[in-house]
Amino acid sequence: MMNKLLSEDVKVINIGLDIFSNDLTRQNVQNLQLDWVPPGNGRLDINEKLKNIFMKKDLIEAANKKALEKIFSAHPMWTGVGLAKDVIPGFTATTLCHAGPPVTWETMCGPMQGSVIGAIIYEGLAHDEEEARKLAPTMTYVPCHHFNAVGPMTGVFSANMPVIIVENKEHGNKAYSPFNSQGRGKPFTFGAYGEDTQVMLRYLRDVMMPTLDQALKVRGEGIDLRMIIAQALHMGDDCHNRLIAATGQLWKILAPELAKAKTPHDIFEGIAQTMYHNNWYFLNFSMAACKASLDAARDIEHSTVVTVMARNGTEVGIQVSGLGNQWFTASAPKVRGKYFPGFSDEDANPDMGDSAITETAGLGAFAMAAALPMTQLVGGKVEDAIKFTKDMRKITVGESYHYTIPTLDFIGTPTGIDVLKVIETGITPIINTGIAHKMAGHGIIGAGLVNMPFETFVKAILAFDYK
């Protein structure tokens, strides 16, 4: 019978090992190799947990729907600026925030140690690298997320560094992010700490912060970040690593307010030049907007929606709505990337930064179909960018009705990463990111793509107390 079927060129669907499909192909039999893996990669402990979770399916779906509505209804507005110690509750003179899950000075990667050195010098606690390294073990290290904050790459910021304040007008919570330090000298967020970096940090504190504070006071109503992100997605941005349109839109709003505030010409020009030479200026605003939106979806019982994805260059971790502030971690992977001339994979630090909060909210690599030029920065083809967005729809709860993608007939960005769907499909969230040199003080050396390790989702699903 089988020979008869084969001779009639019947199509065969194979869901097993691809060697069976290959054998059929050699016999000129049309066949389809189904891209399928057992839930949890076939692990018995995971499948036992899934069996118990399935009994709570209705509760979980209702909780995830609630979490998604919290995210979608969020309305992040930029309303203020200030020094971290003055505006973030609980921030002290010895506090140093950092990206990712908890880490100590001794276990920090090279670039994060570089930013810590830079922060200690900036705060006037040390004069040089040697003094800063001696003092570093005595500082208090706290993940940005523990202060409702986010920071790109190393994520480091200290008491007297300026931060932007973003308010979720719908739900009342706030989020914070340091000012973007790129544009002049080597970037602090990539581990640089030399004098050119210090000059930029002092400029942000002494010139940009008070000037933007005046502009926001003149405006009065704040600046609608949700609107800017929505517009930027229609202009070729992904609002993680491509922010050219968003930065331009922010300047379009800021410039008249700076003029109304009677900003001196030299300061006005300096801020304009800073933003002009930094296509990533809006990144910190995008991150804070996503943080404010996702924090509204925290602590919903039974919800399997991810509220945080973050990396510190040593470990990466996630947090889940129904599991509160628990971290589920794995070793930080290397980024698959394109390097600047003179650098290679040997120079690269493992994955780092809180900026994956954008992917967690449905932007970044989840929205790469809206930002096709991104493929030139991180490698790959246009079809890859479209595939990333389509694949992420398989592991998310829904599609945004604020953030849409023109190249895919204006479907919403895939939003609400579901731990269960990651476990069931084996598909892990993809992130586009910059690459830092593994040694302190060197800065950025490239950009690329990375996936959040499957292990973090396994740990999260096993933590749910379903019996």
List the helices and strands and how they pair.
Layout (H helix, E strand, L loop, with lengths): L1 H6 L4 E3 L3 H9 L4 E3 L10 H11 L2 H17 L2 E8 H4 L7 E4 L11 H13 L6 H7 L4 E4 L13 E2 L3 E7 L5 E5 L16 H25 L3 E2 H9 L10 H17 L4 H12 L6 H13 L10 E7 L2 E6 L7 E4 L4 E4 L12 E2 L3 H4 L13 H5 L3 H11 L3 E10 L5 E7 L1 H7 L4 E7 L7 E8 L2 H10 L4
Parallel strand pairs: 1-2, 4-5
Antiparallel strand pairs: 3-7, 3-9, 4-6, 7-8, 10-11, 10-14, 11-12, 13-18, 15-16, 17-18
Question: Could you explain the architecture of this structure?
Answer:
- The chain has 467 residues and is an alpha+beta fold.
- It folds into 3 domains: 2-36, no CATH class; 47-70 and 293-463, v583 domain like (v583 fold), CATH 3.90.1700.10; 80-288, Enterococcus faecalis V583 domain (Enterococcus faecalis V583 fold, Alpha-Beta Complex).
- It has 17 helices and 18 strands.
- The protein has helices at residues 2-7, 18-26, 44-54, 57-73, 84-87, 110-122, 129-135, 195-219, 225-233, 244-260, 265-276, 283-295, 357-360, 374-378, 382-392, 419-425, 454-463; strands at 12-14, 31-33, 76-83, 95-98, 140-143, 157-158, 162-168, 174-178, 223-224, 306-312, 315-320, 328-331, 336-339, 352-353, 396-405, 411-417, 430-436, 444-451.
- The strands form 6 sheets. The chain has a 4-stranded antiparallel β-sheet with strand order 8-7-3-9. Strands 12-11-10-14 form a 4-stranded antiparallel β-sheet, sandwiched between helices. It has a 3-stranded mixed β-sheet with strand order 5-4-6, covered by helices on one side.
- Mean pLDDT is 91; it is low at 1-7.
